[in-house]
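Aim 2 progress. For Tfp pilus assembly protein FimV, the working sequence is reproduced below.
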Amino acid sequence: MGEPMVPNPRHARLKLLLAEAEERSHEVRQAYQRAFNAMRSRRVWTGPTAEKWTDELALQIHQLGQLAQRVMDAIDEEMHRHPALVPQSQADAIRRELAGRW
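Predicted structure tokens for this construct:
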């Protein structure tokens, strides 16, 4: 009979990190939404400069969203490189490694 399989500490940490990144991604995507909506309403500023500024803000919001998604994708990809369950001895070794105690 082999060693018992237990949760992989590295996989578990990455899963927590992904949840945190998803939460922060939502915050990033919403960070400038109020300003953008106000500008788009044309009630706070009008004219060619206002339109250019609003277009640039829209681009920045889009790019922030893309970058946040890239971070989440990278974490998800890394998480899938590590099995959710590992033998107890491997989990112990991973814990030592993560704690900096090789």
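The longest helix spans residues 48-79. This observation will guide construct design in the next reporting period.
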